[in-house]
Amino acid sequence: MTIKFYAPEWGNTLPFPTFCRNVKTAGYDGVEMALPFDATEKQTVLGTLAQYELELIGQYWQSVETDLDAHCRNYETYLRHLIEARPVLVNCQTGKDFFSPEQNRQLFDLAARISAETGVKIIHETHRGKALFAAPVCQRFLTDLPDLRITLDISHWCNVHESLLEDQPEAVSLAIAHTDHIHSRVGHPEGPQVNDPRAPEWQSTLEAHLNWWDRVVEHHRKAGTQLTITTEFGPAPYMPALPYSQEPVAGQWDINVFMMQLLKARYA
Question: Which three-class secondary structure state does DSSP give residue 95?
């Protein structure tokens, strides 16, 4: 098996070429990001990634329409827009937590048709507010749709269920077996992101996430398949900030590089 690591463009405030140079120097294989619709801007982004020999994971998160028909149209537009760039895969924050299972199923089916048509893998993120927002909800979808593949961002479930999921082993195991991509953010029962995973007070929480990711890696090792990981610690307000000054309590970039180095060493 191979494991490749991607930096999130989310939170970047540097000029894009500077960001890409830093990503390459840090040792990442690519970037996970959305793409601008302006054709010139899009080609500039793709050209810069190519210049620095960085791969692309396309990211869809723009789920705002409450009308299902409008939501489906926008979903397909964004997916095809990302697929034109021929990314490694497209990671989708698919659906809404307030859509019915049947409505979210329409979106999963639409993505499956587009993926089959284009040959680009489309997978679906376990994200708050989206179709796979909770462990038992995801479990039902994965049981009904055995070909569904996911991005495991289990930090969201820790927050949703106010636990480290000790009481939901079956749902977690099924999700792990369907995971092709990891967002290696560390969540906790009261939030989707610890302030700094290097801090000793988060050691047991970090270990819980490492154990989940270990199991994903073992699945891919046995299958001989590629696994991708985005070190997706985010900026404020995901990153806690001081009151009034809004100064982040830790550095997003430094934490993400730490997570990459930690996981590279662990899975070498």
Answer: coil
Helix (H) or strand (E) holding 15: none
The rounded distance, in Å, linking the Cα atoms of 89 and 55 is 10
Structure tokens that stand for 66 in this block = 């409450």
Q: What's the pTM? A: 0.97
pLDDT digits (tens, 9 = 90+) for 67-84: 999 999 999 999 999 999
Residue 148's identity, in one-letter code, is L
Q: What H or E segment, with its residue span, contains residue 57? A: strand 55-60
Question: Locate tokens 């560390």: which residue?
Answer: 186
Contact 27, 5 (CB under 8 A): yes
Nearest of 229, 256, 239 to residue 22 by alpha carbon: 256
The Cβ of residue 213 has, within 10 Å, a number of other Cβ atoms equal to 21
Helix intervals (H) in the chain: 16-26, 39-51, 68-83, 101-118, 135-144, 155-160, 169-177, 203-223, 252-266
